[in-house]
Amino acid sequence: MQYKPLGKSGIEASIVGLGGTSFGGYQESGAPDDKASINAIHAALDNGITLIDTAPSYGWGHSERIIGEAIKGRRDNVVIASKCGVWWKDQRGSSNGIKDGKEVTVSLRPDTIQIEVEDSLKRLGTDYIDLLQCHKPSIPPEETPIEETMECLMNLKHQGKIRAIGVSNVSLKQLTTYDEAGDLSSDQFRYSMLTRDRESDILPYCAKNNIATLTYLSLEQGLLTGKVTLDRVFDQNDFRNNIEKWAPWFKKDNIKRLLDMFSGWEDLLAKYECTIAQLTITWTAKQLGASHILCGSRTAEQSIQNAGAGSINLDHEDMQRISNDLVKLGDPV
């Protein structure tokens, strides 16, 4: 496994991180398998992954509780990244619709952030969070100034309750304001071989200003593993069925184009003794400004496979070859 600093924080973390969304479960898929989740976490830690990302809103605290249970006796070997800002206890903040059956708001007020941090510490069974990230940007009508939010986060850092500060899903302008207002260490956002718009703004800024990047959906819900075939059928409520609005790459024609591209990588898979998913993770982690790739896992085997990507070193020529193939692939049809 390779490790990189989380920006200016001084905290080293594995370049492959474990995403904790699935540990909380989803309304449409029912309750998660907690035993399998704990096994997946243990397998990740046993194979060099130290970075685990979660949030209070993942299962309304369930993901944090499961992670807290899984890391008992191993806390010193784990870099916990959690979040604040998605609020559901009362009407403070600005309405952000319905999530998994609950009315939620976005609240980056100091009073709600402090409550969230105390609750997260209890659920995680720890007295500090390594990286606390603002889950979403503040929105009208109750839009908390970034400077006010950062002052609260800096106070929590000085108190030792958090070690570093991050943001998530922000614009370049918002990122710059956060960076100027305090000690910003990381930015989390969607980025993959198929979703590369952040290469024009966020990634170069982070590279220039020593801000770590935690990218999610880098395997595009399984598309970039090569395991989604033309006969794959998803559950009725799965968003991947909504190909027109949310998931154009899941159209049959586009899946075929991806599978054709993957078939041309057989020699690379043999050369690096890796899977398509591992090749994808490694390529993504080596792009300008990219540092840490978050990969979800429901089983121990998935954790082991994802962790394996962290030890692969692609040659420059092979990196360029893959990039050229992606240019030829183009946009979804």
From TrEMBL:
Source organism superkingdom: Bacteria
InterPro entries the record matches: AKR (IPR020471), AKR_Detox_Biosynth (IPR050523), NAD(P)_OxRdtase_dom_sf (IPR036812), NADP_OxRdtase_dom (IPR023210)
Keywords: Oxidoreductase
Gene3D superfamilies linked to this entry: NADP-dependent oxidoreductase domain
Cellular-component GO terms for this entry: cytosol
NADP-dependent oxidoreductase domain segment(s): 16-323
Keyword Cell membrane set for record: no
SUPFAM superfamilies per record: NAD(P)-linked oxidoreductase
GO molecular function, one term: oxidoreductase activity
Name under which the protein is recorded: Aldo/keto reductase
Highest classification ranks of the organism: Bacteria, Pseudomonadati, Pseudomonadota, Gammaproteobacteria, OMG group
